[in-house]
Amino acid sequence: MAEAAGQSVEIVEVGPRDGYQGIGPFIPTATKIAFLERLAATGLWRIEIGSFVSATALPQLSDTAEVLGACAGIAGIRPQVLVPNEKYGRAALAAGSTFLAFVLSVSEAHNRSNVRRHLLESVEEYRRLIAALPDGIDVRLNLATSFDCPFDGRVAEADVLALLEELVPILPDAEICLCDTTGRASPDHVERLVAACHARFPQARRWALHAHDTYGLGLANVYAAWKQGIRVFDASFGGLGGCPFAPGATGNVATEDLAWMFRRMGVATGVDLDALVPVACDGAAIPGGLPGGRVRHALTASAR
User: How far apart are CA 63 and CA 67, in angstroms?
Assistant: First the structure.
């Protein structure tokens, strides 16, 4: 694809957070750290390593502080952590995090289910957290249910833009990630929303897409966002994932699928696909995991 030659994208590996959070059997902390070491060795430098949340709500991620501490010994990694409110944002900072991903939902129903807050409460908590940040902290703003809500159905584009009118001025430099929480987005919807966001908020310089592959449209939606200028994409090794607060949602688009598609398009990712596939195979085999994706099966077919 000649038009893509010389271009590049950034893949954010979210498997160690989104991929693990719905798994019941506790993954040993040492195993999580070993996977981070292997993922970083493939060229996946930016990795969401966990979230600071209630251990009762998500016991699988109760060791995030320990995992974060281990990242200091992993060459090349830039760990980010998910936080759902001001309290846990401050806890992440106290644990040494320098990259926060603050999540709230466009849908009121999902925001109450996911973070136990009225939407406007979450906006104010984000405002207070940003005001209290020390220097040197990177911030991403994750807008869950930007396209569809598991409770209310399709989310109006006007609702996304209205919420962003409140949020963007708080920190214009924040990276803003539009999240297809349920995997029900379609490429035309993605194109329209991304175009509308760019037109309405030219001061927001970094946009990202978080795609789930529940209905098999994950890669198509990534491509639609790429055509509209997005260059940061979340993905999960082995296609692991699924939101415990979005019934029926399966994993993110698989990292290996994303890396393969962009390689075929002539778009650089910095990811060594040959090194990634064995890690993805092992990730897909984690007990209790819900894997997805196609590329690892295709590339290992001859070995089988």
Answer: 6
- Tell which CATH architecture fits domain 2-299: Alpha-Beta Barrel (3.20)
The residue annotated as part of the active site, out of 177, 179, 197, 243, is 243
Domain boundary assignment for the chain: 2-299
pLDDT, position 111: 82
- pTM value is 0.95
The pLDDT tens digits of the residues spanning 58-87 come to 999 999 999 999 999 999 999 999 999 999
At 146, is the secondary structure helix, strand, or coil?
Answer: coil
User: What's residue 244's pLDDT?
Assistant: 57
- For this structure, is 179 an active site residue? no
Residue 41 sits at the vertex; the CA angle it makes with 66 and 279, to the nearest 5 degrees, is 85
CA distance 18 to 151: 20
Going by pLDDT thresholds of 50, 70 and 90, the confidence category of residue 250 is low
User: What integer pLDDT is reported at residue 87 of this predicted model?
Assistant: 97
Cβ burial of 162 (10 Å; 0-12, 13-18, 19+) is exposed
Looking at the DSSP assignment, which residues form a beta bridge with residue 200?
Answer: none
